[in-house]
Design a protein that fits this description.
The protein is mainly α and 102 residues long. 58% of the residues lie in helices and 0% in strands. The chain has one domain (12-99).
């Protein structure tokens, strides 16, 4: 199983590529949790607190986007393995939305 303590500074490929080699739900759940924890730590380092819901949405979207570079079949396999349903964006604080330019 890939390392579950992700370093704070990591490339997109190094973060999401290991997830594509997972085959069991327990592995997928543990890896997804590590990705969410990493996103929260990284956001805190930048002074931008990220809620668990927002981090889960972000990691779900990033992982599916990354898997899509391989094939639609791989993206669907990842979606099923990680038990991702349709992406529903979390409600973001107004200040964060403004900083994002919306």
């Amino acid at each position: 199983m890939p390392r579950l303590n992700l370093p704070l500074r990591i490339t997109v490929g190094d973060k999401y590529r290991p997830a594509l080699s997972l085959r069991t739900q327990p592995e997928a759940q543990a890896y997804f949790k590590a990705c969410v924890e990493h996103a929260i730590r990284f956001a805190a380092m930048d002074g931008e607190p990220l809620s668990i819901e927002a981090a889960e949405y972000q990691e779900r979207a990033n992982l599916l986007y990354f898997a899509g570079y391989y094939s639609e079949l791989e993206q669907q396999r990842v979606k099923n393995l990680f038990r991702f349903k349709d992406l529903v964006a979390p409600v973001l604080p107004e200040t964060r939305v403004k900083r994002m330019g919306f």
